[in-house]
Design goal:
Elements: E1 19-24, H1 28-43, E2 47-48, E3 57-62, H2 67-85, E4 91-96, H3 97-104, E5 117-119, H4 127-135, E6 171-175, E7 177-178, H5 189-193, E8 197-198, H6 201-213, E9 218-222, H7 239-247, E10 254-257, H8 267-273, E11 279-284, H9 292-298, H10 304-317, E12 322-329, H11 336-347, E13 353-358, H12 376-400, E14 405-413, E15 426-430, E16 441-444, E17 456-464, E18 469-473, H13 487-491
Parallel strand pairs: 1-2, 1-3, 3-4, 4-5, 6-9, 9-10, 10-11, 11-12, 12-13, 16-18
Antiparallel strand pairs: 7-8, 14-15, 14-17, 15-16, 17-18
Helix pairs in contact: 6-7, 7-8, 11-12
The protein binds iron/sulfur cluster (SF4).
């Protein structure tokens, strides 16, 4: 593994080594793939530029999950093709989920028209060879060019490649599996990434060690469904075993569990999460809906009663747990009554953080055969109404923390000119905020702007905002990892 310093500009590239830039779109799982793709290229002698204008070749790791993401990928490719026309770049290639999705849904191929080549998952280990062919203005030999049918998978050997870290080193994603074997009727992931493929516990612990050695102070466990970890590889749910193996690492780091599938979240997982202060009392638990009719129509495999029973059990099993979720509104057949039930559920205030998405037909999914009967304007009204309700709930959670002293992880100084609360000098998060998706804690106090990213310290919450909070750096020297108010952990 190595850090991501930009290498010499192409113009000043006396080394004649080709310079590649990779634009990584979509989710954190794509980010992890992008880091490995960059690691592979550096090991093959390529230089890496952060800016496409400084590169000979630009790769776009696309997202094909939903319409908006596909539009963003297409726009990025067109923009880069414009750079090529103006003579800066020699070639632009598309990788990732949209390149794979276009095989399954040929009518999406037009979105990739600006790319000189499509590189599908099974070609990842051959990326260096493909890039050299593109730079020599040759048509690379790829499975996409060969029109290979069938779903492609990222070969195992790819996951043993080094990662060139993108973004801040103090927070990293650990992708524990790829693909999904769940039957959600609205979701195209199984048609893009295939069925779940878990990585061995030993390899994941080794990767965690390497990320920590590179400065990671927070490891976010990700997958399409983290709670199904191991079912494919070990024939059983093995997330508790993986968590115990990570717990055996001696390092003062936070571990955070994202993308937990409600139906697979077991007490065994909760017991391990409650066993060590380094496991954040935080769960990302996408519910998608709460009405029985919608849960059944979506193929979520869980009822309202089972969901509520799980939510009742969580704070008992994991004291102080913070919940994130996501909901879909406007699913085919969603009645005003279904929506009203969801709105009331959100107003109950279980979730500190929540995302709300508008349903849209995903080609070739079972739900796409249903009549998309909720009018677009009504979908937007339902999304905005739910977000408004969640905003009030989030504000309540933020204000309830005023006066508490929390252990926080510094992400860095506030950017010059950024619109932040008065006196804020740095941005941090506690164990109750995940990177990139949740609110933050603005730090005030002497020297806050000089705090290094990755620093753990105590901070007292002085103000709760809609999604964020403001805190004063507490005088107490950093000693422990957890929220200083929870006595049990101090002595645990
Ligand atoms: S759990 Fe459901 S929504 Fe999530 S990736 Fe799997 S199929 Fe898609």
């Amino acid at each position: 593994m190595s850090d991501n310093k930009s290498r010499p500009l192409r113009a000043g590239n006396k080394s004649q080594q080709p310079v590649v830039c990779l634009v990584s779109l979509g989710c954190a799982k794509n980010t992890v793939d992008s880091e490995r793709l960059l690691g592979l290229l550096v090991s093959a002698g390529f230089l890496i530029a952060a800016d496409p204008a400084d590169a000979d070749l630009c790769l776009v790791n696309t997202c094909g999950f939903i319409q908006e993401a596909r539009a963003e990928s297409a726009a990025t490719l067109r923009e880069l093709a414009g750079l090529k026309v103006r003579g800066r770049l020699r070639a632009v290639a598309a990788l990732g989920c949209l390149a794979e999705r276009a095989r399954d849904v040929p009518e999406l191929a037009g979105l990739l028209a600006a790319a000189d080549a499509l590189i599908r998952f099974d070609d990842y280990p051959r990326l260096a060879e493909i890039c050299r062919a593109l730079l020599a203005q040759q048509t690379p030999d790829t499975t996409a060019a060969a029109g290979a049918a069938g779903l492609s998978h990222v070969p195992d050997e790819f996951y043993r490649l080094p990662r060139l870290r993108m973004g801040a080193p103090h927070t990293a994603y650990l992708k524990i599996s790829e693909g999904c074997s769940n039957p959600c009727r609205f979701c195209a992931i199984p048609r893009i990434r295939g069925r779940q493929v878990s990585r061995p516990i030993k390899a994941l612990v080794q990767e965690a060690r390497e990320l920590i050695a590179l400065g990671a102070r927070e490891l976010n466990l990700i997958a399409q469904d983290t709670t199904s970890y191991g079912r494919d590889l070990y024939g059983a749910f093995r997330l508790p075993a993986l968590l115990r193996a990570l717990r055996a690492l001696p390092d003062p780091v936070w571990f955070r569990l994202l993308y937990a599938y409600p139906r697979h979240l077991s007490d065994a997982v909760l017991d391990v999460l409650a066993s060590d202060e380094r496991f954040c009392p935080y769960l990302d638990l996408p519910l998608q809906h709460i009405s029985d009719a919608m849960l059944a129509a979506m193929g979520r495999g869980m009822t309202r009663a089972q969901t509520v029973a799980l939510l009742d059990r969580l704070p008992r099993k994991l004291p102080g747990v913070t919940l994130r979720t996501s909901f879909i509104v406007g699913y085919p057949g969603e009645t005003e009554r279904d929506f009203a039930e969801l709105l009331d559920f959100v107003r109950e205030g279980c979730f500190t953080h929540a995302g709300v998405f508008i349903y849209s037909h995903e080609p070739r999914t079972p739900a796409a055969r249903l009549k998309d009967d909720v009018p677009p304007a009504e979908k937007i009204r339902r999304r905005d109404t739910l977000l408004q309700a969640q905003r009030a709930v989030s504000r309540q959670h933020q204000r309830a923390r005023v006066g508490r002293t929390l252990r926080v992880l510094v992400d860095g100084p506030v950017e010059r000119g950024a619109k932040v609360p008065a006196g804020a000098r740095a941005i941090a998060r506690s164990r109750h905020e995940a990177p990139e998706v949740d609110g933050v804690i603005y730090l005030r106090g002497a020297g806050a702007q000089r705090l290094a990213p990755g620093t753990f310290l105590d901070a007292r919450i002085v103000r709760g905002l809609d999604y964020d909070a403001v805190a004063e750096i507490a005088p107490a020297p950093p000693a422990l990892l957890t929220d200083t108010r929870s006595k049990k952990h101090q002595t645990g």
